[in-house]
Amino acid sequence: SVDCSISRGVCDWKQDADDDFDWNPADRDRGDGYYMAVPAFVGHKNDMGRLKLLLTDLKPKSSYCLIFSYRLAGEKVGKLRVFLANKKTAPVWEENKGKDEKWRTGKIEIFQGAETTNSVTFESERGKGKTGEIGVDNVILISGLCPED
C-alpha cells in the first residue's frame, strides 16, 4: 500500500513496467507513514521512473482537481512531470528544480470530456545530481475546479 488519500473512488497505484526504475516508499521525517520517492543516485542521467495512479469511476463531462505534495531536493536532481492518460504526449505539469528541500503543493485540473482520463502518471527523470530525491505525497482527487490558494 502507498500513502495516498483519494476522497472519491479507489486509490490504486501501479509501477510502470517499461520504465528504467521504480519509485519506492520512503519514511517521513516525523515517522508517521511514508511517501513515494526516487533517490537522486538511482539510474543514469535522463532515465525515467513512472508511477501511475489508476482512476476509476470518474464521471464524463465533469471536472476534477488533483492536489499533491511534492519536493525536489538536491542540486540537479532532475524533473518531475505529471501526465494525464488521454494527453500522452505533453505533460500537464512539470517542475525541474526545488528552491529548497521544502514540500510544495501541485494542482492539476482534470476535465472529463468525451474521452475520460483513467490514469495520472507521475514521471521522475534522473538529473546529473548525486544527492537528494524527488518525492510525491498526499495525492488527493476532489470533484470540481481547483480551489484558489
Report on the structure:
The chain is an all-beta fold. The chain has one domain: Sandwich (Jelly Rolls). The protein is 0% helix and 46% strand. It has no helices and ten strands. It has strands at residues 12-15, 24-27, 34-39, 48-54, 63-73, 78-84, 93-95, 104-111, 119-126, 133-143. It has a five-stranded antiparallel beta sheet, with no helix packed on it. Strands 2-3-10-5-8 form a five-stranded antiparallel beta sheet, with no helix packed on it. The two termini are 30 Å apart.
What is the approximate shape? globular
Biggest sheet strand line-up: 1-4-9-6-7
Second-tier CATH architecture: Sandwich
Q: Determine the fraction of residues in helical runs and give it as a percent range.
A: under 10%
- What is the CATH fold-level name? Jelly Rolls
Order of helices and strands: EEEEEEEEEE
* Structural Rg: 15 Å
Count of domains = 1
Q: Which CATH class applies here?
A: Mainly Beta
Structural class: mainly beta
Question: What's the β-strand tally?
Answer: 10
pLDDT < 50 runs, ≥5 residues:
1-10
How big a fraction of the residues is strand? over 45%
Give a quick account of the main beta sheet: strands, pairing sense, barrel closure: 5 strands, antiparallel
Domain MAM: 2-148
Protein name: EGFL6 protein
InterPro entries: ConA-like_dom_sf, MAM_dom, MAM_domain-containing
Pfam families: MAM (PF00629)
